[in-house]
Amino acid sequence: MYSFKEKYGEYLASFEARLKKFYDELECKPAILDESLKYSLKSGGKRVRPVLMLASAELVGAKNCGIEDYALALELIHTYSLIHDDLPEMDNDDFRRGRPSNHKVYGAGNAVLAGDGLLNTAYYTLFERCADGKLYADAAKFMCDCAGVKGMIAGQSADLYCSEKNIKDGDMLDYIVKNKTGKLISAAVAVPAILAGGRYFLELRQFGEDLGRLFQLVDDILDEEGSFKNLGKTSGKDKQENKLTYVTFYGTDQCRVYADIMFDRCLRMLDGIEGDTSFMRDIVAFVRYREN
Amino acid sequence: MYSFKEKYGEYLASFEARLKKFYDELECKPAILDESLKYSLKSGGKRVRPVLMLASAELVGAKNCGIEDYALALELIHTYSLIHDDLPEMDNDDFRRGRPSNHKVYGAGNAVLAGDGLLNTAYYTLFERCADGKLYADAAKFMCDCAGVKGMIAGQSADLYCSEKNIKDGDMLDYIVKNKTGKLISAAVAVPAILAGGRYFLELRQFGEDLGRLFQLVDDILDEEGSFKNLGKTSGKDKQENKLTYVTFYGTDQCRVYADIMFDRCLRMLDGIEGDTSFMRDIVAFVRYREN
Known about the structure:
The structure is a homodimer.
Chain A: H1 4-25, H2 31-42, H3 48-60, H4 67-86, E1 95-96, E2 99-100, H5 102-106, H6 108-130, H7 134-147, H8 152-165, H9 170-195, H10 201-225, H11 228-231, H12 237-240, H13 246-250, H14 252-271, H15 278-289
Helix pairs in contact in A: 1-3, 1-4, 2-6, 3-4, 3-9, 4-6, 4-9, 6-7, 7-9, 8-9, 9-10, 10-14, 10-15, 14-15
């Protein structure tokens, strides 16, 4: 019988196996580069993005095309973005996933390089797959676009800009969330669609963006209401620092309504996709109702 | 009649044309991301790496395989590395190529993102070529390896490590130069060899590493003896900061001897390559006898 928890565990185990192989094979010199790269990767987290990718690959039938490598690359990109985002000159966060952030342990200079190294290694992993043919290259290119200056980096830049200039604007907020959070989640679900020859690409890309909005809405609500114990990072920081977030802009009540709307939109999008979408539906609920 | 200056100008013009197309096509939001990316790219410099790549492509017969895209990617990678290297937590340089460094103009947070954005865009450019076939993917993978945690980033990390721990060690010095400077120059000359089906790959890779050493030797001598006017950056900084460089480790006189040895080695390596190597020879002399 299908159990969400079990299935999540299966995807997770298959991803962690790929990650372990990566740890074992990677040996950088000097040792501090090696350690700092692995420190942030090993901090874990829920691995939502790689799990989503493996699930989407099963749904669209893109299971035997090295999807684990794409999932690895995605997690490397996500982890690099957290390291750079936590830097003193960016969000200046001292904690991440319950542990001191990378720059608190290794210093800001090494943290910059750890992030650069993870990004570069992500793409090295993808270039290795590109030799297999055009679909592989197309999938890699799409992921790179999602992470880049029209994607995640644009979102981070807009976020920093609004912080520095104290801008409160709903369109900017949507631009930030769509790019900073939405694009990598979109990549998680739409890359398998490309590898499967384009099957449900548009649907899954849109699904990913909406799931990204839902993810951010819940994140912002948790930042307002959660505890350090649950979150593994300082809570209430957004308000304190007067950041532009869903909660500081719309208030918590409005956010819950908006989250319910996104929740429905995600499920409706899945209605249009053939095959067993149970796990995808459950992960939408997981994102909506999580406590950390 | 062949003239080095003219030929350099031709390669440069062809590269600048590709770069201009890149400027025109790239439009990032927010504007500060767009500006900060382009600011450092437009600072110019001698464009030695892309010029070397175009020359090497002509030598091995890899001219019609989109080599300008690889040259663009290489210059984007080089520029990102300068931006991150100049950051306060790294080398803390306020000037670069005669102008305030990126973080002095846009702030450290935006400089981190500008660097990230350039690196990501470099690989996007290469993923676009990967769809053309295996050789294209192999060439991209090699460049990525040269820039990565076994290449340039390893060199930067070792450099930072030696600075922080005040380590003076000849092997570490060679490791730093080989990776931080040598690998990208190696990529410049060896990527065309891959695109040409592997012709003279080993020779050109070694040539690139030695030319990198020569480049760094002259850089260190110029830092010791040059003026701000010639260099476009603060001179005498290495000694002041007690950095591990060729000059601080071996002294200027020994460096000149070492430079002459590398100069000869570069030329000898070219002896083994068929075709017209005049320009490559002249660029070795240019690197050896430049004043900035």
